[in-house]
Amino acid sequence: MAHRACDWSGIDRLEGGRMCDTDYELLCAQLRELSEAEPHWLPVLANASALIMEALPNLNWAGFYLTDVGAEAPSLVLGPFQGKVACVRIPYGRGVCGTAAAQNKPQLVPNVHEFPGHIACDSASNSEVVIPLHASGSVIGVLDLDSPLLSRFSDKDFAGLQAVVSTVETCASFVGLPFGR
Ligand code: SME
Q1: Is 97 in the pocket of ligand 1 (CB under 6 A)?
Q2: Atom of ligand 1 at shortest distance to CA of 86?
Q3: Ligand 1 centroid to residue 95 C-alpha, Å
Q4: Which of 25, 94, 104, 144 has the most CB atoms around it within 10 Å of its CB?
Q5: pLDDT in the model for residue 70
Q6: What is the DSSP letter of 114?
Q7: Mutate which of 78, 103, 144, 145 to test ligand 1's pocket (most atoms within 8 Å of Cβ)?
C-alpha cells in the first residue's frame, strides 16, 4: 500500500529535494477495490479523501463539496473531507470551488492569493486544485485539495487527480444525493 519511497514530508532527499511523485494508478486501483465492497457515494467519497490525504505529501485539506440545486441559487455544501474545519456553503461562481463548479472546469491554482475571490478556509493554504465531479452528465460537486506550499501541484498531479475523480464517477453510486435532488 506504500505510495512513496520518501519521508513523511514528501521530499525525496536522494532526488535532490524534489517533491515525490504520487502513484495515481495505485490510488485509482485502491479506490476501485474499496468501491467494489461498497459503492454508495458517502463511503466512497470519505475513503477517497482519506486515500488522497495519505498519498499526496504536503496537503492541509482534501475533500469534497456537493452541489445543492435546491437552494435559491446553486451552491456547494461541505461533504466528506480530511483536514481542518472548513467553510460549510460556497455559492456557485465564488472562490476556486465555486468557479470550478459554475464553469464545469478543473482549476489548478499555483498561488491562491492571486486568485480573485479565493476563499481562505485555512490561512495556511497557498496552492489549490479543484476538479468538478459529475453524475449523469451534471456537476454534482467538486474535489478540493489545498497545500501550504506554493505551486505544490504539478501538471502530473493535475492530470492524476482528474483520473481519480473519473474513477470516483465510474465506481460510486450517486443515488440519494442529499441536497435538492
Ligand atoms: N479555498 C476554497 C474554499 C474551500 S477550502 O479551501 C476547504 C475556495 O476558494 O473555493
Answers
A1: yes
A2: 7
A3: 6
A4: 144
A5: 82
A6: G
A7: 144
Residues 128, 97 contacting (CB under 8 angstroms): no
Within 10 A of 80 (CB to CB), how many other CB atoms are there?
19
Q: Which amino acid is at 97?
A: C
Question: Would you give the distance in Å from CA 65 to the centre of its chain?
Answer: 9
Residues 6+ apart with CB under 8 A from 90: 65, 75, 76, 97, 98, 119
What is the distance between the alpha carbons of residues 64 and 81, in angstroms, rounded to a whole number?
A: 6
| All cell numbers assigned to 76 | 456547494
Ligand 1 atom closest to 94 (CA): 10
Query: Above pLDDT 70, what percent of the chain?
Result: 88
Q: Is the CB of 87 under 6 A from ligand 1?
A: yes
Is the CB of residue 101 below 6 angstroms from any atom belonging to ligand 1?
A: no
Q: Provide the mean pLDDT of the chain.
A: 90
Nearest CA to ligand 1 atom 6: 121
pLDDT single digits (tens) 26-48: 999 999 999 999 999 999 999 99
pLDDT of residue 159: 98
The amino acid at 100? A
Residue 180 has a pLDDT of: 67
DSSP for 2-48, please give it. ---SS-TT-EEGGGTTEEPPP-HHHHHHHHHHHHHH--BHHHHHHHH
